Amino acid sequence: MMNRLDKTALLPPDVDRPSFDPASLKIGIVHLGLGAFHRAHQAIYNDLAIEAGAATDWGIAGASLRSVDVVADLKAQDYRYSVITRGPDGDKARVVYSIIDAIAARQERDRLLERLVDNATRIVTLTVSEKAYGIDPISGGLDLSHAAIAHDLKTPEQPIGPIGFLVETFARRMRLGRHPITVLCCDNLPGNGHVVRHLVVEMAERRNPELARWIERDMCFPSSMVDRIVPAATGGTRQLATSLLGADDRLALETEPFTQWVIEDDFAAGRPAWEAGGAIFVENVHAYEKMKLRLLNGSHSLIAYLGQLNGLDYVRDVMAVPAHVERVREHMEAVLPSLDPVPQIDLGIYRQELVNRFSNPAIAHRTAQIAMDGSQKMPQRIFAPAMERLAVGDNAQGFANVVALWLAYVGSSEHLDDPRATELKAAALLAESTGSAAAFFDIPGLFPPELMNNSKWRSLVDAHLLVIRGR
Questions:
Q1: d(C-alpha 410, C-alpha 418), whole Å
Q2: Could you report the per-residue pLDDT of 157-174, keeping only the tens digit for each?
Q3: Contact between residue 9 and residue 245 where contact means Cβ atoms under 8 Å apart
Q4: Residue 21 and residue 47: Cα distance in Å, rounded?
Protein backbone atom coordinates (compact mmCIF):
# COMPACT_ATOMS: atom_id res chain seq x y z
CA MET A 1 0.00 0.00 0.00
CA MET A 2 1.31 3.45 -0.97
CA ASN A 3 2.60 5.58 1.91
CA ARG A 4 0.70 8.80 2.39
CA LEU A 5 2.27 12.23 2.14
CA ASP A 6 2.99 13.10 5.77
CA LYS A 7 6.11 14.04 7.71
CA THR A 8 7.41 10.46 7.50
CA ALA A 9 7.34 10.37 3.67
CA LEU A 10 10.72 10.00 1.99
CA LEU A 11 10.48 12.22 -1.07
CA PRO A 12 12.63 11.99 -4.21
CA PRO A 13 15.39 14.63 -4.35
CA ASP A 14 13.85 16.41 -7.35
CA VAL A 15 10.69 17.29 -5.39
CA ASP A 16 10.88 20.90 -4.18
CA ARG A 17 10.22 21.57 -0.51
CA PRO A 18 11.07 24.40 1.91
CA SER A 19 14.24 24.25 3.95
CA PHE A 20 12.48 25.24 7.19
CA ASP A 21 10.91 22.87 9.72
CA PRO A 22 7.10 23.39 9.90
CA ALA A 23 7.28 22.53 13.62
CA SER A 24 9.22 25.76 14.15
CA LEU A 25 6.38 27.94 12.85
CA LYS A 26 3.89 29.96 14.87
CA ILE A 27 0.55 31.04 13.44
CA GLY A 28 0.37 34.66 12.31
CA ILE A 29 -2.16 34.30 9.47
CA VAL A 30 -5.67 32.85 9.49
CA HIS A 31 -7.00 32.09 6.02
CA LEU A 32 -10.73 31.77 5.36
CA GLY A 33 -11.51 29.56 2.37
CA LEU A 34 -9.17 26.58 2.36
CA GLY A 35 -9.70 25.74 -1.32
CA ALA A 36 -7.42 24.84 -4.19
CA PHE A 37 -6.55 28.38 -5.18
CA HIS A 38 -5.20 29.43 -1.80
CA ARG A 39 -3.18 26.25 -1.46
CA ALA A 40 -1.59 26.70 -4.90
CA HIS A 41 -1.08 30.44 -4.64
CA GLN A 42 -0.81 32.35 -1.33
CA ALA A 43 0.47 29.36 0.64
CA ILE A 44 3.39 28.98 -1.78
CA TYR A 45 4.21 32.69 -1.56
CA ASN A 46 4.19 32.21 2.21
CA ASP A 47 6.57 29.26 2.01
CA LEU A 48 9.01 31.35 -0.03
CA ALA A 49 8.66 34.35 2.29
CA ILE A 50 9.37 32.29 5.40
CA GLU A 51 12.31 30.61 3.73
CA ALA A 52 13.81 33.90 2.54
CA GLY A 53 13.35 35.81 5.78
CA ALA A 54 13.77 33.05 8.33
CA ALA A 55 10.61 34.48 9.96
CA THR A 56 8.87 31.76 11.96
CA ASP A 57 5.80 33.76 13.04
CA TRP A 58 3.88 33.62 9.75
CA GLY A 59 2.46 30.10 9.75
CA ILE A 60 -1.06 29.74 8.37
CA ALA A 61 -4.15 28.36 10.07
CA GLY A 62 -6.47 27.51 7.18
CA ALA A 63 -10.22 27.43 7.78
CA SER A 64 -12.84 25.84 5.56
CA LEU A 65 -16.23 27.46 6.04
CA ARG A 66 -18.10 24.58 4.38
CA SER A 67 -16.06 21.44 3.71
CA VAL A 68 -14.84 19.11 6.44
CA ASP A 69 -13.06 16.72 4.07
CA VAL A 70 -10.19 19.04 3.15
CA VAL A 71 -9.51 19.61 6.86
CA ALA A 72 -9.55 15.90 7.64
CA ASP A 73 -7.19 15.19 4.74
CA LEU A 74 -4.78 17.92 5.80
CA LYS A 75 -4.67 16.63 9.35
CA ALA A 76 -4.08 13.07 8.12
CA GLN A 77 -1.10 14.31 6.08
CA ASP A 78 0.43 16.47 8.83
CA TYR A 79 -0.82 19.50 6.85
CA ARG A 80 1.44 18.68 3.89
CA TYR A 81 0.30 18.52 0.27
CA SER A 82 1.80 18.90 -3.18
CA VAL A 83 1.34 21.37 -5.99
CA ILE A 84 2.37 20.18 -9.45
CA THR A 85 3.37 22.84 -11.95
CA ARG A 86 2.62 21.73 -15.50
CA GLY A 87 4.31 23.56 -18.35
CA PRO A 88 6.41 23.20 -21.51
CA ASP A 89 9.36 21.96 -19.47
CA GLY A 90 7.37 19.10 -17.96
CA ASP A 91 5.84 18.47 -14.54
CA LYS A 92 7.44 19.62 -11.31
CA ALA A 93 6.15 18.85 -7.80
CA ARG A 94 6.49 21.04 -4.73
CA VAL A 95 5.41 20.13 -1.19
CA VAL A 96 4.01 23.06 0.82
CA TYR A 97 4.77 23.49 4.52
CA SER A 98 3.40 26.86 5.67
CA ILE A 99 -0.14 25.66 6.52
CA ILE A 100 0.26 24.27 10.03
CA ASP A 101 -3.35 24.09 11.23
CA ALA A 102 -6.71 23.41 9.60
CA ILE A 103 -10.15 24.16 11.00
CA ALA A 104 -13.60 23.03 9.81
CA ALA A 105 -15.75 26.01 10.76
CA ARG A 106 -19.01 24.04 10.71
CA GLN A 107 -17.68 21.76 13.45
CA GLU A 108 -15.13 24.02 15.18
CA ARG A 109 -16.59 27.53 15.16
CA ASP A 110 -15.24 28.35 18.61
CA ARG A 111 -11.74 27.16 17.75
CA LEU A 112 -11.73 29.27 14.59
CA LEU A 113 -12.81 32.33 16.55
CA GLU A 114 -10.11 31.65 19.12
CA ARG A 115 -7.53 31.61 16.33
CA LEU A 116 -8.91 34.84 14.86
CA VAL A 117 -8.92 36.60 18.21
CA ASP A 118 -5.50 35.34 19.33
CA ASN A 119 -3.07 38.26 19.60
CA ALA A 120 -0.55 36.30 17.53
CA THR A 121 -2.88 36.56 14.52
CA ARG A 122 -1.96 39.66 12.53
CA ILE A 123 -3.43 38.98 9.08
CA VAL A 124 -6.69 37.38 7.92
CA THR A 125 -6.70 36.42 4.24
CA LEU A 126 -9.76 35.31 2.27
CA THR A 127 -10.57 33.27 -0.87
CA VAL A 128 -14.24 32.38 -0.42
CA SER A 129 -15.65 33.20 -3.93
CA GLU A 130 -17.64 36.27 -4.94
CA LYS A 131 -21.05 34.95 -3.88
CA ALA A 132 -19.99 34.12 -0.31
CA TYR A 133 -19.70 37.78 0.69
CA GLY A 134 -23.44 38.43 0.40
CA ILE A 135 -23.28 41.65 -1.63
CA ASP A 136 -26.55 43.30 -2.61
CA PRO A 137 -26.26 43.78 -6.41
CA ILE A 138 -28.20 47.05 -6.29
CA SER A 139 -26.84 48.86 -3.21
CA GLY A 140 -23.40 47.26 -3.05
CA GLY A 141 -23.98 46.74 0.68
CA LEU A 142 -25.19 43.71 2.60
CA ASP A 143 -27.72 41.48 0.87
CA LEU A 144 -30.16 40.91 3.73
CA SER A 145 -31.72 37.96 1.87
CA HIS A 146 -28.37 36.14 1.67
CA ALA A 147 -28.57 33.12 4.00
CA ALA A 148 -25.26 33.72 5.79
CA ILE A 149 -25.82 37.46 6.14
CA ALA A 150 -29.33 36.95 7.55
CA HIS A 151 -28.06 34.31 9.97
CA ASP A 152 -25.09 36.36 11.17
CA LEU A 153 -27.18 39.47 11.75
CA LYS A 154 -29.64 37.45 13.82
CA THR A 155 -27.07 35.42 15.78
CA PRO A 156 -23.85 37.46 15.57
CA GLU A 157 -21.94 35.45 18.17
CA GLN A 158 -22.41 32.23 16.16
CA PRO A 159 -21.34 33.28 12.64
CA ILE A 160 -21.33 31.06 9.57
CA GLY A 161 -20.29 33.47 6.80
CA PRO A 162 -17.00 35.30 6.20
CA ILE A 163 -18.37 38.77 7.00
CA GLY A 164 -20.01 37.46 10.17
CA PHE A 165 -16.79 35.80 11.29
CA LEU A 166 -14.84 39.02 10.73
CA VAL A 167 -17.33 41.17 12.64
CA GLU A 168 -17.48 38.76 15.58
CA THR A 169 -13.68 38.61 15.54
CA PHE A 170 -13.45 42.39 15.74
CA ALA A 171 -16.07 42.55 18.49
CA ARG A 172 -14.07 40.13 20.62
CA ARG A 173 -10.74 41.78 19.82
CA MET A 174 -12.09 45.21 20.80
CA ARG A 175 -13.50 43.84 24.04
CA LEU A 176 -10.19 42.15 24.90
CA GLY A 177 -7.98 45.06 23.86
CA ARG A 178 -6.22 43.19 21.07
CA HIS A 179 -3.99 44.99 18.56
CA PRO A 180 -5.27 45.96 15.08
CA ILE A 181 -5.05 43.41 12.27
CA THR A 182 -5.17 43.37 8.48
CA VAL A 183 -7.92 41.77 6.38
CA LEU A 184 -6.56 40.88 2.93
CA CYS A 185 -9.18 39.80 0.38
CA CYS A 186 -7.86 37.71 -2.53
CA ASP A 187 -11.13 37.18 -4.42
CA ASN A 188 -12.05 38.55 -7.85
CA LEU A 189 -13.96 41.63 -6.74
CA PRO A 190 -13.13 45.14 -7.97
CA GLY A 191 -11.61 47.06 -5.09
CA ASN A 192 -11.90 43.92 -3.00
CA GLY A 193 -10.40 45.51 0.10
CA HIS A 194 -12.82 48.43 -0.07
CA VAL A 195 -15.74 46.05 -0.65
CA VAL A 196 -14.93 43.87 2.36
CA ARG A 197 -14.32 46.91 4.56
CA HIS A 198 -17.72 48.35 3.56
CA LEU A 199 -19.56 45.08 4.28
CA VAL A 200 -17.81 44.56 7.62
CA VAL A 201 -18.46 48.11 8.78
CA GLU A 202 -22.11 47.92 7.72
CA MET A 203 -22.69 44.70 9.67
CA ALA A 204 -20.80 46.08 12.66
CA GLU A 205 -22.85 49.31 12.54
CA ARG A 206 -26.06 47.29 12.79
CA ARG A 207 -24.62 45.59 15.86
CA ASN A 208 -22.68 48.32 17.66
CA PRO A 209 -21.79 51.75 16.19
CA GLU A 210 -18.76 51.99 18.48
CA LEU A 211 -17.43 48.72 17.03
CA ALA A 212 -17.92 50.06 13.49
CA ARG A 213 -15.95 53.22 14.29
CA TRP A 214 -13.12 51.17 15.86
CA ILE A 215 -12.88 49.00 12.74
CA GLU A 216 -12.87 52.05 10.46
CA ARG A 217 -10.19 53.77 12.49
CA ASP A 218 -7.74 50.97 13.28
CA MET A 219 -8.10 48.03 10.85
CA CYS A 220 -6.47 47.76 7.42
CA PHE A 221 -8.22 46.35 4.34
CA PRO A 222 -5.73 46.48 1.44
CA SER A 223 -6.93 45.42 -1.98
CA SER A 224 -5.08 42.78 -3.96
CA MET A 225 -5.06 41.14 -7.35
CA VAL A 226 -4.29 37.43 -7.64
CA ASP A 227 -3.69 35.36 -10.74
CA ARG A 228 -2.99 31.70 -11.29
CA ILE A 229 -5.03 29.08 -13.09
CA VAL A 230 -5.75 26.24 -10.66
CA PRO A 231 -8.19 23.66 -12.06
CA ALA A 232 -10.24 21.45 -9.78
CA ALA A 233 -8.20 18.38 -8.88
CA THR A 234 -9.15 15.02 -10.41
CA GLY A 235 -8.21 11.41 -9.96
CA GLY A 236 -5.60 12.01 -12.64
CA THR A 237 -4.06 14.74 -10.48
CA ARG A 238 -3.65 12.31 -7.63
CA GLN A 239 -2.13 9.67 -9.90
CA LEU A 240 0.34 12.19 -11.27
CA ALA A 241 1.30 13.22 -7.74
CA THR A 242 1.89 9.61 -6.77
CA SER A 243 4.24 9.11 -9.72
CA LEU A 244 6.25 12.22 -8.80
CA LEU A 245 6.24 11.89 -5.01
CA GLY A 246 6.30 8.16 -4.44
CA ALA A 247 3.54 8.80 -1.89
CA ASP A 248 -0.24 9.14 -1.92
CA ASP A 249 -1.43 12.75 -1.69
CA ARG A 250 -5.20 13.13 -1.39
CA LEU A 251 -4.80 16.91 -1.65
CA ALA A 252 -2.56 17.14 -4.70
CA LEU A 253 -3.17 20.08 -7.02
CA GLU A 254 -1.95 20.92 -10.50
CA THR A 255 -1.42 24.39 -11.85
CA GLU A 256 0.34 26.46 -14.51
CA PRO A 257 3.82 27.99 -14.22
CA PHE A 258 2.45 31.57 -14.23
CA THR A 259 1.61 33.19 -10.90
CA GLN A 260 1.00 36.82 -9.91
CA TRP A 261 0.05 38.69 -6.75
CA VAL A 262 -0.23 42.48 -6.57
CA ILE A 263 -0.96 43.92 -3.12
CA GLU A 264 -1.54 47.38 -1.69
CA ASP A 265 1.15 47.83 0.94
CA ASP A 266 -1.12 48.82 3.84
CA PHE A 267 -0.75 46.49 6.84
CA ALA A 268 -1.68 47.14 10.44
CA ALA A 269 0.79 44.80 12.17
CA GLY A 270 3.48 43.75 9.72
CA ARG A 271 3.45 41.20 6.90
CA PRO A 272 5.52 38.35 5.47
CA ALA A 273 8.15 39.11 2.82
CA TRP A 274 5.88 37.84 0.04
CA GLU A 275 8.01 39.71 -2.49
CA ALA A 276 10.47 36.82 -2.07
CA GLY A 277 7.99 34.77 -4.09
CA GLY A 278 7.49 37.54 -6.65
CA ALA A 279 4.60 39.49 -5.11
CA ILE A 280 4.41 43.14 -6.18
CA PHE A 281 3.60 45.77 -3.54
CA VAL A 282 1.99 48.96 -4.82
CA GLU A 283 0.22 52.04 -3.53
CA ASN A 284 -2.92 51.34 -5.59
CA VAL A 285 -3.87 48.04 -7.18
CA HIS A 286 -6.75 49.40 -9.30
CA ALA A 287 -5.03 49.35 -12.72
CA TYR A 288 -3.72 45.79 -12.23
CA GLU A 289 -7.12 44.67 -11.04
CA LYS A 290 -8.95 46.05 -14.08
CA MET A 291 -6.36 44.47 -16.37
CA LYS A 292 -6.79 41.04 -14.86
CA LEU A 293 -10.57 41.10 -14.39
CA ARG A 294 -11.26 42.32 -17.90
CA LEU A 295 -8.53 40.65 -19.96
CA LEU A 296 -8.10 37.34 -18.14
CA ASN A 297 -11.39 36.79 -16.30
CA GLY A 298 -13.53 38.37 -19.01
CA SER A 299 -11.87 36.21 -21.67
CA HIS A 300 -12.27 33.20 -19.40
CA SER A 301 -16.03 33.80 -19.26
CA LEU A 302 -16.17 34.09 -23.04
CA ILE A 303 -14.21 30.84 -23.38
CA ALA A 304 -16.38 29.09 -20.80
CA TYR A 305 -19.66 29.90 -22.57
CA LEU A 306 -18.22 29.08 -25.99
CA GLY A 307 -17.12 25.75 -24.55
CA GLN A 308 -20.40 24.96 -22.84
CA LEU A 309 -22.46 25.82 -25.93
CA ASN A 310 -20.20 23.82 -28.23
CA GLY A 311 -19.61 20.70 -26.15
CA LEU A 312 -16.00 21.56 -25.29
CA ASP A 313 -15.16 20.48 -21.76
CA TYR A 314 -11.86 22.26 -21.20
CA VAL A 315 -10.41 25.70 -21.88
CA ARG A 316 -7.65 24.06 -23.91
CA ASP A 317 -10.29 22.43 -26.13
CA VAL A 318 -11.83 25.82 -26.92
CA MET A 319 -8.39 27.25 -27.66
CA ALA A 320 -7.70 24.40 -30.08
CA VAL A 321 -10.37 25.89 -32.40
CA PRO A 322 -8.84 28.76 -34.43
CA ALA A 323 -12.16 30.60 -34.78
CA HIS A 324 -12.60 30.63 -31.00
CA VAL A 325 -9.02 31.87 -30.49
CA GLU A 326 -9.77 34.72 -32.87
CA ARG A 327 -12.86 35.63 -30.84
CA VAL A 328 -10.76 35.69 -27.68
CA ARG A 329 -8.23 37.99 -29.32
CA GLU A 330 -11.01 40.26 -30.59
CA HIS A 331 -12.47 40.43 -27.10
CA MET A 332 -9.13 41.48 -25.66
CA GLU A 333 -8.86 44.20 -28.30
CA ALA A 334 -12.32 45.46 -27.30
CA VAL A 335 -11.23 45.57 -23.65
CA LEU A 336 -8.01 47.55 -24.21
CA PRO A 337 -9.56 51.06 -24.46
CA SER A 338 -11.22 50.53 -21.06
CA LEU A 339 -7.92 49.94 -19.26
CA ASP A 340 -5.63 52.37 -17.44
CA PRO A 341 -1.84 52.32 -17.90
CA VAL A 342 -0.43 49.45 -15.82
CA PRO A 343 3.03 50.07 -14.33
CA GLN A 344 5.62 47.39 -15.18
CA ILE A 345 3.22 45.60 -17.57
CA ASP A 346 3.39 45.50 -21.39
CA LEU A 347 -0.24 44.81 -22.35
CA GLY A 348 0.73 43.36 -25.73
CA ILE A 349 2.98 40.79 -24.09
CA TYR A 350 0.39 40.20 -21.36
CA ARG A 351 -2.35 39.39 -23.90
CA GLN A 352 -0.14 36.93 -25.76
CA GLU A 353 0.79 35.31 -22.43
CA LEU A 354 -2.92 34.85 -21.73
CA VAL A 355 -3.49 33.13 -25.07
CA ASN A 356 -0.53 30.85 -24.34
CA ARG A 357 -1.79 30.10 -20.83
CA PHE A 358 -5.31 29.33 -22.00
CA SER A 359 -3.86 27.00 -24.66
CA ASN A 360 -1.62 25.03 -22.26
CA PRO A 361 -2.42 21.39 -23.17
CA ALA A 362 -1.37 20.13 -19.72
CA ILE A 363 -3.97 22.19 -17.81
CA ALA A 364 -7.44 20.62 -17.66
CA HIS A 365 -9.52 23.64 -16.62
CA ARG A 366 -13.20 22.81 -17.02
CA THR A 367 -15.36 25.34 -18.83
CA ALA A 368 -18.25 24.30 -16.53
CA GLN A 369 -16.22 25.41 -13.50
CA ILE A 370 -15.64 28.87 -14.98
CA ALA A 371 -19.22 29.19 -16.28
CA MET A 372 -20.85 28.84 -12.85
CA ASP A 373 -22.04 31.89 -10.86
CA GLY A 374 -22.29 34.09 -13.95
CA SER A 375 -24.57 36.59 -12.21
CA GLN A 376 -21.75 37.26 -9.73
CA LYS A 377 -18.93 37.38 -12.29
CA MET A 378 -20.37 39.24 -15.28
CA PRO A 379 -20.77 42.68 -13.60
CA GLN A 380 -17.03 43.25 -13.10
CA ARG A 381 -15.81 41.24 -16.09
CA ILE A 382 -18.22 42.36 -18.82
CA PHE A 383 -20.85 44.88 -17.67
CA ALA A 384 -18.37 47.45 -16.29
CA PRO A 385 -16.25 47.80 -19.46
CA ALA A 386 -19.42 47.76 -21.58
CA MET A 387 -20.81 50.73 -19.63
CA GLU A 388 -17.54 52.63 -19.96
CA ARG A 389 -17.37 52.12 -23.73
CA LEU A 390 -21.01 53.12 -24.20
CA ALA A 391 -20.37 56.29 -22.18
CA VAL A 392 -17.77 57.46 -24.71
CA GLY A 393 -19.87 56.66 -27.77
CA ASP A 394 -18.66 53.15 -28.60
CA ASN A 395 -21.36 50.56 -29.38
CA ALA A 396 -19.76 47.96 -27.03
CA GLN A 397 -20.77 45.24 -29.45
CA GLY A 398 -18.10 42.79 -28.30
CA PHE A 399 -19.47 42.88 -24.77
CA ALA A 400 -23.04 42.40 -26.05
CA ASN A 401 -21.77 39.25 -27.74
CA VAL A 402 -20.41 37.80 -24.47
CA VAL A 403 -23.66 38.65 -22.66
CA ALA A 404 -25.63 36.85 -25.36
CA LEU A 405 -23.42 33.78 -24.98
CA TRP A 406 -24.00 33.82 -21.22
CA LEU A 407 -27.78 34.11 -21.62
CA ALA A 408 -27.80 31.31 -24.20
CA TYR A 409 -25.84 29.17 -21.76
CA VAL A 410 -28.35 29.95 -19.00
CA GLY A 411 -31.15 28.78 -21.27
CA SER A 412 -29.37 25.58 -22.30
CA SER A 413 -28.03 24.54 -18.88
CA GLU A 414 -29.95 21.68 -17.25
CA HIS A 415 -28.50 22.31 -13.80
CA LEU A 416 -27.56 25.98 -13.62
CA ASP A 417 -25.12 26.63 -10.77
CA ASP A 418 -25.80 30.26 -9.87
CA PRO A 419 -27.19 31.98 -6.75
CA ARG A 420 -29.88 33.57 -8.97
CA ALA A 421 -30.63 30.40 -10.92
CA THR A 422 -34.41 30.45 -10.31
CA GLU A 423 -34.80 33.99 -11.69
CA LEU A 424 -32.44 33.31 -14.57
CA LYS A 425 -34.16 30.10 -15.68
CA ALA A 426 -37.60 31.78 -15.54
CA ALA A 427 -36.28 34.60 -17.72
CA ALA A 428 -34.72 32.10 -20.12
CA LEU A 429 -38.12 30.49 -20.74
CA LEU A 430 -39.61 33.88 -21.62
CA ALA A 431 -36.63 34.75 -23.80
CA GLU A 432 -37.00 31.49 -25.69
CA SER A 433 -40.67 32.17 -26.46
CA THR A 434 -40.25 35.87 -27.32
CA GLY A 435 -36.87 35.79 -29.05
CA SER A 436 -35.75 38.70 -26.86
CA ALA A 437 -33.51 39.05 -23.82
CA ALA A 438 -35.96 41.57 -22.29
CA ALA A 439 -36.93 39.20 -19.46
CA PHE A 440 -33.33 39.08 -18.27
CA PHE A 441 -33.14 42.87 -18.18
CA ASP A 442 -36.28 42.90 -16.03
CA ILE A 443 -34.57 40.93 -13.23
CA PRO A 444 -33.97 43.46 -10.41
CA GLY A 445 -30.31 44.30 -9.94
CA LEU A 446 -29.00 41.90 -12.58
CA PHE A 447 -27.97 44.57 -15.10
CA PRO A 448 -26.92 48.13 -14.21
CA PRO A 449 -29.28 50.93 -15.35
CA GLU A 450 -26.77 52.12 -17.95
CA LEU A 451 -27.21 48.82 -19.80
CA MET A 452 -30.88 48.25 -18.99
CA ASN A 453 -31.86 51.63 -20.43
CA ASN A 454 -29.72 51.51 -23.57
CA SER A 455 -32.08 50.22 -26.24
CA LYS A 456 -29.43 50.12 -28.99
CA TRP A 457 -27.09 47.97 -26.90
CA ARG A 458 -29.95 45.70 -25.85
CA SER A 459 -30.85 45.21 -29.49
CA LEU A 460 -27.27 44.06 -30.11
CA VAL A 461 -27.66 41.47 -27.34
CA ASP A 462 -30.91 40.29 -28.97
CA ALA A 463 -29.28 40.08 -32.40
CA HIS A 464 -26.35 38.03 -31.08
CA LEU A 465 -28.72 35.79 -29.13
CA LEU A 466 -30.73 35.03 -32.29
CA VAL A 467 -27.55 34.13 -34.17
CA ILE A 468 -26.37 31.82 -31.36
CA ARG A 469 -29.73 30.06 -31.37
CA GLY A 470 -29.59 29.69 -35.14
CA ARG A 471 -32.71 31.73 -35.83
A1: 9
A2: 999 999 999 999 999 999
A3: yes
A4: 11
